[in-house]
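ugh ok fine here u go
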Amino acid sequence: MKPAISVRGISKRYRLAHQTAKGYRTLRDEISDSAAALLRGKWRRGSTHDEFWALRDVSFDVAPGDVIGIVGRNGAGKSTLLKILSRITPPSDGEVTMRGRVGSLLEVGTGFHPELTGRENIFLSGAILGMKRAEVVSKFDEIVAFAEIEQFLDTPVKRYSSGMYVRLAFGVAAHLETEILLIDEVLAVGDAQFQKKSLNKIQSVAEAGRTVIFVSHNMAAIQTFCQNGLLLNKGVGVAQGPIASIVEKYSMLGSHLQMEAAGLDKRPRASFVHGNSRIFRVEVNKLRPVFHGEPLVVEFEANLAGPVPDLAAGIGFSAIDGTRLLSYDSDLRQERMSATGGPLKVRIEIDELQLQPGIYSLDVGLRSGNSICTDYVGSCLQLEVGAGSRTPPFLVDGAPSVRSGARWIMENKQVRWNIDSLRPG
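structure:
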């Protein structure tokens, strides 16, 4: 069976023009200089160009009925690739073969005419997809019910809020009968209820045997709906294969996020640090990815200059702006130890990490008793926490923070729940 989508050696190059600053010039000056430059076969003086490759030699196939997730950091080329597949922009090189009608949801209201009403845009989108009017009519009520815009159906879409816009756009793309559906990271515009409904719709579309390409930073959603994945990094296809392995490689991508820090003993210490004991190495999760709601292990090593009575260890997670969000201290769970001088190894095992998806800095420290700081290294490394299997979609793009559990008791008529939810969730 031939693939539904076949991509061979796709590249996309953009030219970035840099105009040097000049003083005040008249239109006559600009016309004169431009004409002279054209006669010389060059652009006018003061203008330079750089080349930017958004994609470089990307190749992959998608089988009919497959749901593939495309992942990568910001600027990896994901949206550019979908625009090429949607025929919005042509590739600079390479070839794309699409077998079937293509529906796409790349940006809020892509393909909508702002002066037309919601009703008119539904029929316009269907016509663009090559559908007959009768086909659009058969799906019309489902689209309107899904988008929840009945009251504003005959209002020009330029007056819609971003949430109304994306609800209608997604409803059209998901309900009109296309063989191939391309979805970019647009669901973050909607509220949590709409996101959940949209993800359920994506699942039903996939179960119906339609081919779907899904771009998202929500790794939980990607792993739920996709069988296979493609990892892009700086415009290059890094890996393609089963979605679990692609997500793992994506989570470990990005050398700027250090998962291991060494040579910390050479860093200057703050004035509140007493003595010559030094933490010299920190490692997080054995260099494996870190996910919200899943186990985490932090290990660090130190050289103690001498005996340390009542030794306690601690770690802290802070937002990038330095705001401390979460701390763990050894003496809250066990008795302090009296340590001799020499090598010290510390291992902290966290059953379920309570940090929401985001980027955090890690602080580590040792103290003697309640007030004497034996050593402390602030922001010894940065780590990125990804969305885990139980992370709700609405947490993915939120500000870094702690989402913890508690013991909940809820009563409703004759039903009583006693939920021991000490886990984050």
